[in-house]
């Protein structure tokens, strides 16, 4: 990872927000309240570990905006997560939900912990206690968590159960990304990757790149990276490089994605660590980012494409599957170098769109089939992509700026219609 000492994701988000507001000709009064989150909660709590000792954990839940509906956003587990990271991620959720025009605001949560060093029981205790601590903030009408880095359907199931125990009845709509058996939606697990594959297809068409003759490098091989790799590969794109936290794997003729997914399924921490196959070489994680490919897909975490490595990128387009992988300064360099960036708030919105479908099914006690889910997902992603593209053409702006303008305009309109309380 390229870590610039001064990098602050929230500052990064504010720079973009101010630029978009400027382009839209908004006055500070129109959007000043969007420069700060509506609510921030920091919690500290003890957990009895398997060996009997007590360990303290810190968690966060930040609600950036509820102007367009209940707050919505993932929960991440990471040892180095900061409140500014969570604040930025919460704001990105507000913009993302507005870009795809679903009736949510933005939120995000985190617990400072390293799941690779925890047993399943410890992870469950942490999740249950964290849920209890943030209980007053969450609920189907208030704020609905979902999976993010290092969290998954199991974690969502424990949150749903803990919340339901406090309420005294089953409340599936309190989280999305749950196991199917307890109210999860068909298609949710692959949804973010499906959206990434969809926008990669669309941008390929705009760039006159034949997807079946194209190549891609993917950083990150978790929930999102795996689904994106699988779907793009299925459509004929050659995935030449994939990395995870354990290393990067390269094969010019293309990697066997199914084999790699199966390998991670059997690894205790779902990693590619030790993966071997004919023709595969290992490369440096940084070198993956500068490979000569059609599409570079960062699907790991924020702050990966920085002013230090943006000049070395050789991909024709970057499709941001991760949240915030590109810094503000790196974005300027990429624009100057005419490298197209499909921004995170559009590219990875498939997950929250199907989370929305899951919530709709939960509150109506309905179950949609997978085709219904996928058809509606593609319809929404298609509309959002075209709206962003139209603004990009109209204002000769980057796709990121166009997406921010689309989102900000929607949120500001909602705020104006509601007025200021009291
Ligand atoms: N899960 C979702 O539905 C969803 C939706 C929208 C956006 N996102 C974003 O997508 C990104 C990935 O989320 P996820 O749910 O797939 O997480 P995950 O924990 O399932 O996977 C993350 C992957 O990134 C790898 N990784 C971490 N640091 C790395 C590094 N320095 N170099 C290379 N690989 C590294 C990990 O080993 C893992 O393979 C995050 O930015 C997340 O916020 C996720």
Automatic annotation (TrEMBL):
Binding site for substrate: 72, 96, 355
SMART domains for this protein: ELFV_dehydrog (SM00839)
Record-linked Gene3D superfamilies: Leucine Dehydrogenase, chain A, domain 1 (3.40.50.10860), NAD(P)-binding Rossmann-like Domain (3.40.50.720)
Positions contributing to NAD(+) binding: 192, 223
UniProt keywords, alphabetically: NAD, Nucleotide-binding, Oxidoreductase
Active-site residues, record numbering mapped to chain: 108
Record-linked CDD domains: NAD_bind_1_Glu_DH
GO biological process, one term: L-glutamate catabolic process
Important for catalysis, annotated site positions: 148
Record keyword Nucleotide-binding present: yes
Signal peptide residue numbers: none
Residues annotated as domain Glutamate/phenylalanine/leucine/valine/L-tryptophan dehydrogenase C-terminal: 185-419
GO molecular function terms attached to this record: glutamate dehydrogenase (NAD+) activity; nucleotide binding
InterPro entries in alphabetical order: Aminoacid_DH-like_N_sf, Glu/Leu/Phe/Val/Trp_DH, Glu/Leu/Phe/Val/Trp_DH_C, Glu/Leu/Phe/Val/Trp_DH_dimer, Glu_DH, NAD(P)-bd_dom_sf, NAD_bind_Glu_DH
PANTHER family xrefs: GLUTAMATE DEHYDROGENASE, GLUTAMATE DEHYDROGENASE 1, MITOCHONDRIAL
UniProt record similarity statement: Belongs to the Glu/Leu/Phe/Val dehydrogenases family.
Name of this protein: Glutamate dehydrogenase
Originating species: Atribacter laminatus
Highest classification ranks of the organism: Bacteria, Pseudomonadati, Atribacterota, Atribacteria, Atribacterales
